Amino acid sequence: MPASLPPVGSRTLGRTGLAVSALGLGCMGMSQMYGPADRTEAIATVRRALDLGVTFLDTSDVYGSGHNEELVGEAIAGRRDEVQLATKFSLTRTAGGGMTIDGRPENVRACAEASLRRLDVDVIDLYYQHRVDPRVPIEDTVGAMAELVQQGKVRHLGLSEASAASIRRAVAVHPIAALQSEWSLWTRDLEEEVLGVAREHGIGIVPFSPLGRGFLTGAISSPADFGDDDWRRNHPRFTGEAFAANLRLVDDVRALAREKGVTAGQLALAWVLAQGDDVVPIPGTKRRTYLEENVGAVGVELSADDLARLEAIAPPGAATGGRYVDAGYAYGDSPEWAG
After folding, report:
1. Which residue in 34, 63, 128, 324 is the catalytic one?
2. What is the DSSP letter of 173?
3. Domains of the chain
């Protein structure tokens, strides 16, 4: 390990005792959403993550319609024992580019078997319902997930972007180790109610997009920076007046980062890490250089003054624009996608 990179360390998700690396790796971008990815570099990035102690890997059966699970499976071949492997089910991409959601027990079982095959593993460490299906009682879905635990095919259960009400109903069926939701300096909806409920029930927090879909790194200065196949080109926070308004927020983050001698991305990630020992962010990247920059955030110490200044820069609601192009995909238990 380069001397400049700190040890990643570990954290425990929830009362179920799932120990993972303190920083995870979101693998979605290796298969979709953020422009083309090089398979060789993507696999090298996963393997470099393991070398650096980033052993908590996050994928889903919907990322690249199965491609991402296959890629992750190839990358961890021969190193399975080092990895805490998380994947998800319930979303399926339609021919028209939309999403369907299916939380039926029979789909839970079928999806798990398919994920095990693609990942080429015997057991999944953390199995999430990617989005809660409003048409299926969550008790039925979690009940089927619990059967997978009993069968030894899954070790721990998780929910993604679930409401407080759904969390309460789910934990009555089986312990939930982790809640995956968007959380960053510019997306703080989680703090309104859901965070408290999750902690009340001993559920660990796994923030996705902790770098604001890359915006908080300061590397994006214009909508022209996005390729034609990058979904951010049409994202509400990356277009028109919203882009300019959000860029001012990022400029303030960059200014504080310069004072501390770190990158804007490292500062933003350090803020998420500072939100509690039960928080394990999973910044996504498909390149080793960005992975190593993210690992550097583990060594960034934030003082009370730093945290106060960041709170002033990015209080709840500071970001301009919605989280998704379609408001129907926004936080809650309606069908959502891209997490």
Report:
1. 63
2. T
3. 10-214+266-301 (3.20.20.100)
